[in-house]
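job 3f2a | input accepted
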Amino acid sequence: MAGTGLTPLKAAEFIEDVEQYMRGKVLEDEIVQLQERLRSFRQREQQLLLRRARLQQREPEIRTALEAVRGLLAKKGSGEQLQVDFELTEAIYAKAALQDVDSVDLWLGANVMVEYPLEEAEQLLQQQL
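job 3f2a | predicted structure (129 res):
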């Protein structure tokens, strides 16, 4: 799972002939091993469900930021001044006049904000959707 931050799990295999599979093996050891693999799969399922829920929660914010970046890109180099409402905190906004903006600051999470050129910010936000 390249780029996901998750370690790969060994693929589950279908046991067609249980008797043949168990030849020379200790039943209790195999049960413990299979239960451990099942636990790993369930743990991965929970991680993925949690990640999906977080992404679904963030999707409206990402779309809004992407629209803003695309608007800035459209006005870039035109010399035209753009009036925007800038969110200071939840439900508190300030008016701002922007002209020839080359970069934006994006929250990455964990109280980290990074400045990106507009083109890179658009790519990053698009990848997050």
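job 3f2a | The chain has three helices and four strands.
job 3f2a | closed
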